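ok so I'm stuck.
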Amino acid sequence: MSLPPPSALPTVPPAATEPATPAAELKPTWGDTLRVYLEPASLRMFALGFSAGLPLLLVLGTLSFRLREAGLDRTTIGYLSWVGLAYGFKWCWAPLVDRMPIPLLTRFMGRRRSWLLLSQLAIMAALVGMALADPRSQLTLVVWCALAVAFASATQDIALDAFRIESADARHQGALAATYQTGYRLAMIWAGAGVLWLAARAEVAPAVATAGVAGPGVLYQQAAWTSAYLVMAASMLVGVLTVLFTREPVRVALAPSKNAAEWLRSALVEPFADFLKRYGKQALLILALIGVYRISDVVMGIMANPFYVDMGYTKDEVAAVTKVYGIIMTLVGAFIGGALSLKLGVMRVLMLGAVLSAASNLLFAWLAGHGHDVTALIAVISADNLSAGVASAAFIAYLSSLTNVTYSATQYALFSSMMLLAPKWLAGYSGAFVDAYDYATFFTATAFLGVPVLLLVWLATRLQPGAMAVRQPPDPANNA
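replied:
not stuck anymore, here's the structure
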């Protein structure tokens, strides 16, 4: 069986031969560094980041709030959180997104844009389904729609990561990561606090209380949630319009496959074999670093909300300080991390982010013995979220630098999935640890989890420079 070529896009032109430029002349000024955030590629990534961040809470945190208000028991809500596992296994179908053209659509839009558009339209349709289904009587439909949102959202992430990596050279990946995170975090505010605000404003009196299950005084109005989720579905138009009015990044042309076996080998085997071939024994070090870099933050984060409740912070205090103000601090940290990565290099900022992430957990240990104090909470959240933003921007840029543009979607999906597997598994024991000891001991222990990360980052910096230069520069015209 003869398969069509996976892509008919032009190849990346070879780099022009120019006289060597002294390193001092290549060093950007701070003005040049900051102006990178106003470049078209950065602004596009801001809008696409919003599209990527919107679905996550709508099938996790926000959905849990809605289901609890509708009277579902906590055990059922806990099982339904497994919907989010779609994001952890997106690498399984990433090779198809990386290599398989969509009939008709890819021909007119290119592979990255066609997959982005298809996944965004699927998210919108599934969100409409979640809006119209009443979880009190149509829970199965709600679950299937939530699974569709998660699957389509993970697919969008695969295509978007590849789109970002192929849209700029390695030096600009930190800035693109920062603007991506900005759009992503703003979408999380909209899908978290925003959807609750919309649902509350859409409620009409008198409301009918859910009988007994979710506690006295809990109200549920399906019409209010329907309107809120429909607004969320419409908000995906930000990403749809961006995809429609942008250009496909220029990427390496792929050789046509002679048969199905050859196509499967190139789509499923070669992306992973390429990484192992390029890095050899160093691949184990890199994979270890990817697997544990965010371990301090992820393990600590599981117990953060129970900690706030046990310390006596009200819902309003937690929402205002940790959700809104905290996300703003994360955005500030992301911009700082992106700028520093461009100015100082990714590996130095990667080390800085690892140090700050571990150290900020010690502040939570201090807060545990400080008592209920909103001012202290603000100070701790400021430090913790700033450090998380710096670490995330540098880490995304580092992951991007590891990919080969020929297999960017598959390789990046593998990396971004791996970084959560071990931390999420270990975090499952965090509650038992707190019960056996206390919050202060737990937060201190999570800080010490970051010590091996520092060693791995130091070892990774000793990689030969040539090993990191695996990406071919894209056409400069793509940044226009």
